[in-house]
């Protein structure tokens, strides 16, 4: 293995830069060349590739986003797109590719591996929706961003004695909602993994009010119910004043937390070591405190478990 390519793909996540830095510096330390591929699989198809050195990843460990830029690539899902990418890989003499992204990106990597290209995936997404790993790079930062917003919203919600519905990202996963909800003491957490009905939500609010509560935060994960529709129904059924805050892409930015930087550094270094030891078609993961790796097909076939125990705890503690 003389030359490794690295790219970021899908939605960006804080800590991706720390992962790129770890890949580049671990490879160079082991006398391996690194090529940075810009704009995910789009850049691979188009040959948007440049050599990276130790200095090119200086001053980035603390920065959100990704210096390589990122994109979602429809063309890569086609045989023609894959063939174009394979040609570029041959032209640039790339011996293995590290893909930092979510499971859509891993599917792309897996398809590329069928051409005989060694690939390793590093889970980078705020959603924490990759089954083989306890945590993905960017999740901790996103949760802290939501928590910071929640704390601020709590101030004004209490002053006005209102309900605030905070809509968070997560695609089809409720982890951002769950972790931010538990750590922020939300009155209720609505996630795609657990069926809910508006009457139950209203009952929680009314019971709280009867016990003297004056502020109510509901965390709603995207992919459940339209927050504005929910607000209207809650207002009608409880008589409480309701506001909605959709946090949106603010959750994808910001300086990564220490936890994300450490996770990214460990995963990036592990990915390089896998390629250097001749292993390929792997996804790096963290289980407990251990960095491990899985076969890419196995990783893609695993089903993400929602933490029902934590969800129940959040319910109990928010009475
Ligand atoms: O996967 C990360 C994520 O931020 C999801 O939480 C969200 O559903 C989606 O990406 C938003 O994508 P886009 O950046 O294309 O709006």
From TrEMBL:
It comes from the Bacteria. The active site is at residue 127. Its cofactor is Mg(2+). ADP binds at residues 21-25, 154, 185-187, 211, 213-215. It catalyses: beta-D-fructose 6-phosphate + ATP = beta-D-fructose 1,6-bisphosphate + ADP + H(+). Mg(2+) binds at residue 103. Its EC number is 2.7.1.11. Coiled coil: none annotated. Keywords: Allosteric enzyme, ATP-binding, Cytoplasm, Glycolysis, Kinase, Magnesium, Metal-binding, Nucleotide-binding, Transferase. InterPro entries: ATP_PFK (IPR022953), ATP_PFK_prok-type (IPR012003), PFKA_ATP_prok (IPR012828), Phosphofructokinase_CS (IPR015912), Phosphofructokinase_dom (IPR000023), PKF_sf (IPR035966). Substrate binds at residues 125-127, 162, 169-171, 222, 243, 249-252. GO terms for cellular component: 6-phosphofructokinase complex. Belongs to the phosphofructokinase type A (PFKA) family. ATP-dependent PFK group I subfamily. Prokaryotic clade 'B1' sub-subfamily. Residues 4-275 form the Phosphofructokinase domain. This is ATP-dependent 6-phosphofructokinase. The keyword ATP-binding applies. It is an enzyme of class 2 (transferase). Its main location: cytoplasm. Homotetramer. Allosterically activated by ADP and other diphosphonucleosides, and allosterically inhibited by phosphoenolpyruvate. GO terms for biological process: canonical glycolysis; fructose 1,6-bisphosphate metabolic process; fructose 6-phosphate metabolic process. Catalyzes the phosphorylation of D-fructose 6-phosphate to fructose 1,6-bisphosphate by ATP, the first committing step of glycolysis. ATP binds at residues 11, 72-73, 102-105. SUPFAM superfamilies: Phosphofructokinase. Pathway: Carbohydrate degradation; glycolysis; D-glyceraldehyde 3-phosphate and glycerone phosphate from D-glucose: step 3/4. It comes from Caldicoprobacter faecalis.
């Amino acid at each position: 293995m003389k030359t490794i390519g690295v790219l970021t793909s899908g939605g960006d996540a804080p800590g991706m830069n720390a992962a790129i830095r770890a890949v580049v510096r671990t490879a160079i330390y082991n006398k391996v060349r690194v090529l940075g591929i810009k704009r995910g699989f789009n850049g691979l198809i188009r040959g948007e590739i440049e050599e990276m050195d130790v200095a090119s990843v200086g001053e980035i460990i603390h920065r959100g986003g990704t210096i390589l830029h990122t994109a979602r690539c429809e063309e890569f899902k086609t045989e023609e797109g894959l063939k174009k990418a394979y040609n570029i890989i041959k032209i640039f003499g790339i011996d293995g590719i590290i893909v930092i992204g979510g499971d859509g990106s891993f599917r792309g990597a897996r398809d590329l591996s069928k051409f005989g290209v060694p690939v390793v995936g590093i889970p980078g997404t705020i959603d924490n929706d990759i089954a083989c790993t306890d945590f993905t790079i960017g999740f901790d930062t996103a949760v802290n961003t939501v928590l910071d917003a929640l704390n601020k919203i709590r101030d004004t919600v209490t002053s006005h004695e209102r309900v605030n519905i905070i809509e968070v990202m997560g695609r089809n996963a409720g982890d951002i909602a769950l972790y931010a909800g538990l750590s922020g003491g939300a009155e209720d957490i609505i996630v795609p993994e657990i069926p809910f009905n508006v009457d139950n939500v209203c009952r929680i609010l009314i019971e709280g009010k009867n016990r003297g509560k004056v502020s109510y935060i509901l965390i709603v994960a995207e992919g459940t119910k339209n927050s504005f529709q929910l607000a209207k129904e809650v207002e009608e059924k409880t008589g409480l004043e309701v506001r909605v805050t959709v946090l949106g892409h603010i959750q994808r930015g910001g300086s990564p937390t220490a936890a994300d930087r450490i996770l990214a550094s460990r995963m990036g270094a592990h990915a390089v070591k896998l390629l250097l030891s001749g292993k390929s078609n792997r996804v790096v993961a963290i289980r407990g405190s251990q960095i491990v790796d899985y076969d890419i097909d196995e990783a893609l076939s695993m089903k993400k478990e929602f933490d029902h125990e934590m969800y129940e705890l959040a319910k109990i503690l928010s009475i």
